[in-house]
Amino acid sequence: MYAFDFVKPATLSDAVAAMEQEGAQALAGGQTLLPTMKQRLNAPDILISLNGIAELRGVRREEDALVIGAATTHTEVARDAAADYPGLAALAGQIGDPSVRNRGTLGGSVANNDPSACYPAAVLGSGATIATSKREIAADDFFQGMFATALDDDELITAIRFPIPHKAAYAKFHQPASRFALTGAFVANFGDGVRVAITGASEEGVFRWTEAEAALSDNFDAAALDGLTLPAKGMIGDLHGTPEYRAHLVAVMTRRAVAAAR
Amino acid sequence: MNTISMTVNGKTVSAEAEGRTLLSGFLREGLGLTGTHVGCDTSQCGACVVHVDGKPVKSCSVLAMDVAGSEIRTIEGMANSDGSLNAIQQAFQDHHGLQCGFCTPGMVMAAAALLAENPRPTEAEIRDYLEGNICRCTGYQNIVKAVMAASGQDVSEMSAIAAQ
Lengths: 262, 164
Fold this sequence. Notes:
The structure holds two protein chains of two kinds. Chain A contains ten helices and twelve strands. Chain A is 29% helix and 23% strand. The radius of gyration of chain A is 18 Å and the shape is globular. Chain A is of the alpha+beta class. Chain A has three domains: 5-49, Uridine Diphospho-n-acetylenolpyruvylglucosamine Reductase, domain 2, CATH 3.30.43.10; 56-163, Uridine Diphospho-n-acetylenolpyruvylglucosamine Reductase, domain 3, CATH 3.30.465.10; 167-260, Enolase-like, domain 1 (2-Layer Sandwich). Chain B has a five-stranded mixed beta sheet, sandwiched between helices. In chain B, a hairpin with a 2-residue loop joins β3 and β4 (55-58). Classes of the chains: A alpha+beta, B alpha+beta. The interface between A and B is medium-sized, with 28 and 27 residues.
């Protein structure tokens, strides 16, 4: 890694002030950022660690929603969201491996918006709201393509508010080397509608499969998806799978998620 | 350079670190604790696993300055106080859970974290927990067997070679 300055503010307001410096980059769990910096794909001048800010951590219930601090680790979400939102907790418990889950955070994953990351599917599939240091952003407006989000350069995610569905599940086809999703589907049934969010498939990153949402809103059963397919055009093609394979996996994983929803 | 302090294997230590100094480098080069191995340096192989405040992390993907003040435990802190191997280390020896030994520090640290959380894991739970620790020699079977044995469970029915 190139040399950089490191600061670890104790409060959100200090972190927000530090982010205004030229060349500043927020450091959450670092499980993606640090490997990226080692490869010199990213070379910030100053890293602002968010790991010492108590107000950014924790899972709390607020009426019909679960509000999770941005610096809450995957391990903590897997444990502390299990009673209120088991589908989300199960997703968090499948990210990476135990050591990665002890460092990696919700906010870091969502801000990075890797096209194969798990959390963006839960955020979009839940119709969550992303609270930042400046505003609140609906999930539908937040994700803007591969590694692109609505965040400004100096804007920090502070918490994410997940409406709790009646039933939900995430079905992940594991890519065993990276432990990302080769393709994953998050399905959430809110009673008055179903949301389906797909990760690890589109070159545009996480997206809603609206045809599946319409079919499942009429009949929340895997059979309701019979005959529904997605075109291979625009799907990711790499050594792990062709666009056609990923398009097929989207339908398979969505069916599995519907069958597993609870 | 900054001087940072942390508690490593029960002792308070201080050494110099740059912003970019990784915890793995701080332990190995700053403190001379070379039992923590760096395999891939891309946070995939798990050879560098240490405990930070009781939880396993990949020390090649953590900045030393970010865990200043924390309690760190490394493979050097795992033996019994009389210097004999602890139950997990002894089980790795008894059940041939290592060949070249490069991955072993991380395997032992991950196994210790698992048994602290889940004292009698199933074979499937062990395999799941060790997903982030890669071994290129053993084929894993004897590592899983060693962890089962270290948890006090009967491994006499577990084949030495039958893989799942």
